[in-house]
Amino acid sequence: MYPDQRALTRAGIHDPVLRESYEYCRRLLVALGDGKDIWRGSLLLPPERRPHVWAMYGFARHYDELSEAAAGSGTGRARFADWRATAKRDLESGHSCEPSLRALIHTLRTFDLAPAPAQGLLDAYLMDLSVTAYPTFGDLLRYLRLLAVEPCRMLVPVMGPTSGPYGAEAEAMALALQLTNLIRDLAEDQRHGRTYLPLEDLDRFGVTRQDLARGRMTPAVRELVKFEVDRAHAFYEDGAGLPDLVHPRCREPFRASLTFYRSYLTEIERRDYDVLTIKPRVGPARKARMALRLGGPLLMSRARRSRRGTDSARRWEEAACS
Questions:
Q1: Which residue of 5, 101, 216, 269 sits 20 to 30 Å from the alpha carbon of 113, by its own alpha carbon?
Q2: Residues 276 and 205 in one domain
Q3: CA nearest 83: which of 108, 103, 106, 100?
Q4: Any bridge partners for residue 195, and if so which?
């Protein structure tokens, strides 16, 4: 039995159909875009938590791919609206024959979570098929709350019992992560006819949508990207305490994953804010250095946990994060 299968067993997922549904979510992450980074990050979590992370992200990737496919068709929006309506009904009923949704429903039931954030995510994907620009940052925020903030609040409980309210930190971190995506994918989004950066920000720096579509890095575009990177950094700082609010066994892996994602901003800064000519990527060498830097504290924290505490305390920790 390979490690991912053992994680399913550790999570108490034994039904063959349900196991295949979770495995479908895992395969989606490994196969599509930056999903492999999400899957790698999940390997730092306790095994019994990993499948539930795959379910949440796998569901998101499945319907994101359907939305992207629908965008290339004249009848695509109506077709995706039908898929969305079916998925929402399945979330309400608690039963589905679609693999990623079946796994997500099981995860929601396991952690006693409401389906509303997942339904909001589907609404955000539908918006992508009709809304191509956001006049103000406030307009963008309303979209991002559906796309990222509510799903993040759904994800945090999977990381274990929290030590206090986490709403503000979860919102800030979700916005930081999603703004990182929007900055990194700026050129790709232009090719799809979408401008997620607020138009008021473009106006502030004298940049037009046509300037971005041409793909040339002008001084004005660099200033615009720098402004957005600084905004994302500010949200990372506001959400920096979020890992401290989850269970200790999940804390360092969670922090490591967030640190890795923030490194995209560092790479953009290193490239003098050029996100139009080549898509920013975190290369293998940088990933390896980061793994060494982050892996040390993670291993040390595990070693400290193995040395301290009574048997009863260790049994409580196992029960609290299982």
A1: 5
A2: yes
A3: 100
A4: 133
Q: Length of the chain, please?
A: 322
Residue 179 CB-half CA count within 13 A:
25
Within a domain: 177: yes
Q: Which of 150, 161, 105, 156 is nearest to 124 (CA)?
A: 150
268 burial (CB, 10 Å; 0-12 / 13-18 / 19+) is: buried
Written as one letter, the residue type at 50 is R
Are 262 and 227 contained in the same domain? yes
pLDDT tens digits for range 110-121: 999 999 999 999
State how far the Cα of 322 lies from the Cα of 317, in Å rounded to an integer.
Answer: 9
**pLDDT, tens digit, 9 for 90 and up, residues 246-290:** 888 888 888 888 888 899 999 999 999 999 998 888 765 555 555
Q: What is the pTM of this model?
A: 0.82
Range of the domain at 268: 134-302
Coil, strand or helix: which one is 195? Answer: strand
> Which long-range contacts (C-beta less than 8 Å, at least 24 apart) are formed by 4-12?
4/50, 6/47, 7/47, 7/48, 7/50, 7/51, 8/51, 10/46, 10/47, 10/48, 11/47, 11/48, 11/49, 11/50, 11/51, 11/52, 12/48
259 within domain boundaries: yes
Same domain, 160 and 121: no
Contact call for residues 61 and 160 (beta carbons, < 8 A): no
Q: Rounded to an integer, what distance in angstroms lies between the CA atom of residue 238 and that of residue 229? A: 14
- What are the residues facing 60 on neighbouring strands? none
Helices (H), the chain: 3-10, 16-31, 35-42, 50-71, 76-93, 99-110, 116-127, 137-144, 150-155, 167-184, 186-191, 199-204, 209-214, 219-238, 248-270, 284-307, 311-320
